[in-house]
Amino acid sequence: MQGFVENALMLVCAGNAHRAGRDMTGFWPDAPTFKFMKVCEFRLPPESGNDKDDYPVVASNPLEFFQLQGANCRGYRLHHTVRKRQPSQQTDTPDRMLAGFVGGGPRFLIEAVGQFNSELWEPFHRLGDRNDPSRRIWLCTHILQAQIPATESEPVDLAVALSDLRTVLPEIEDYAREEKYDNFADCFANASKALASTAVEEFPWIVDIVKYTGFDTRQVNVLRAINHAWVFGGMGSWNDTGGGERYDALSERLYAALNDTIAGLANSTFRA
Question: Which end of the chain is more exposed for a tag (fewer CB within 10 A), N or C?
């Protein structure tokens, strides 16, 4: 899973853990999801509506953002949609084929759910100093996109998303075996095994994630499955293999199911 996707997932889960009273000391900037991130801030759009004007800072980091939301916030949810492109950026290339590029792949929106209205925040990632000695080369700015009635939000349900994922994984594994893409077939098989598992292997990265999210065994195994099955990226990824109607259909189904599962996993931590 690309870093920007993991960032959105972890922010929502950590936000819900913070609201539930979990000790979030060190989440920013020490959580693994921020290993290469220098800035993670939240800004409002210019009052003038002119993109060239200043974007006022609301919070300089995630913990400040969680605290700012305060008691009015009932929790956080995650949504995904097709990424917006400018007229000059229109392309027939599927989003899954652009997932490995900055500005490509799924568009995620973080919903801060209020008592009556919700705020929708979108993260924008850009490259900072390539030579940063700490290797924190990424800068992320979340910008408020809209305020909507909380009742208009339709969050992805994890159970529904998992049904789709469990269905497509063995089908795309069979296709990968037939085409001799055994390394990818193993990825899909391992994802299926993770979803069926009732135990958790004690990897250091899992301990760190549970520390800030409070994930139970099922949620950890869903995350493991996502990491195994997310094969969309740049050179050498699943996007560089295959072709034809069956490949395209299975790839689109897997991509959609994974995006739904990511949002559904985040939403499973919402406890209004």
Answer: C
Sign of CA dihedral 164, 237, 190, 225: negative
pTM comes to: 0.91
Tell me how far apart the alpha carbons of residues 23 and 2 are, in angstroms, rounded to a whole number: 27
C-alpha span between 264 and 231 (Å, rounded): 19
> Bridge partners of 114?
73
Q: Which residue has the higher pLDDT, 203 or 250?
A: 250
- In angstroms, the Cα distances linking 205 to 31, 32, 37, 175 are 10, 8, 17, 31
Domain end among 126, 152, 178 = 152
Last residue of a domain, which of 152, 185, 209?
Answer: 152
**Residue 141 DSSP one-character state:** E
Q: Are residues 217 and 129 in the same domain?
A: no
Q: Are residues 214 and 244 in the same domain?
A: yes
In percent, how much of the chain has pLDDT > 70?
Answer: 93
pLDDT confidence tier of residue 102, bands split at 50, 70 and 90 = low
